Amino acid sequence: GICIEMKEVTKKYDSISALNGIDMEIPCGARYSLIGPNGAGKSTTLKILVGLLKPDSGKVTVGGFDPVTNQAKGIIGYLPEDAYPYINLTLKENLEYIGAIRGVEDPKSRAMDLIEKLDLLPYRYTKVSQLSRGNRQKLSVALAIVHHPKVILLDEPLNYLDIPTQASVIKMLDDLKATYLVSTHIMEIAEKLSRNVIIIGHGRVTWNGTMDHLRKMA
Ligand code: ADP
Ligand code: ADP
Q1: Which residue lies with its CA nearest to atom 14 of ligand 2?
Q2: Distance, CA 128 to ligand 1 centroid (Å)?
Q3: How far is it between the farthest Cα atoms of the chain?
Q4: Phi and psi, residue 36, nearest 5°
Q5: Where are the transmembrane segments (predicted)?
Q6: Do strands 2-13 and 204-210 pair parallel, antiparallel, or not at all (unpaired)?
Q7: Residue 139 pLDDT grade (very low, low, confident, very high; cuts 50, 70, 90)
Q8: Which of 79, 100, 113, 129 could form a disulfide with 154 if both were Cys (CB 3.0 to 4.6 A apart)?
Q9: How far is it, in rounded angstroms, from Cα 4 to Cα 167?
């Protein structure tokens, strides 16, 4: 089936048109990068899919649900552009706390599982305020997926990460059985993330296809 669908979606902020008719269909289980320069409409697209923003017109479904419904919320994992974990809690406490809020069965073991996968073991008792930017970003990615979401929407997840750290995040994402759409403005990052790409510019989809095909066109 189709897990992410947008049909002729438009969105304005006051007089600024952010989206001018976005169309996409992402099959369940597929992985896509959402590429485009700053201002293209990537964050707005993701916020609409998460239900944080309402489109002005058009149709949106995630996992078959309208994004503003609770059913949709439960299956979505979202990393906002400006993710901020709880600053006075430790890395591990953040994962346990958010895991518990989102109904994870055994939040403590889930927390350890993610900590190990992301090579964060030495920092598990470190308060977020004392974490490096890179480790804070890794934690933010882990928080986005702590509840085993079926549809994963990540806004520039590899920001602030050096190459080895990018690799551990990509490895962890690769191991997940989920549909994912990950935004980036960096082509090299998109190439590492997925075989499929959607390119947007000025609030419209200008390319939707495989990375291989895109390379042949270039
Ligand atoms: P991207 O994520 O690709 O950088 P955005 O979705 O953030 O693009 O932005 C798309 C357009 O909408 C840009 O022109 C941006 O300046 C504008 N925009 C985004 N957020 C707001 C906002 N809160 N208020 C006004 N304009 C905004
Ligand atoms: P409520 O329904 O009690 O108002 P929220 O709207 O905060 O609670 O969250 C509802 C559901 O949305 C949560 O159970 C969780 O599955 C999901 N959710 C909220 N925030 C995020 C996020 N950043 N990433 C992934 N899922 C989230």
Answers
A1: 102
A2: 28
A3: 49
A4: 170, 160
A5: none
A6: unpaired
A7: very high
A8: 79
A9: 26
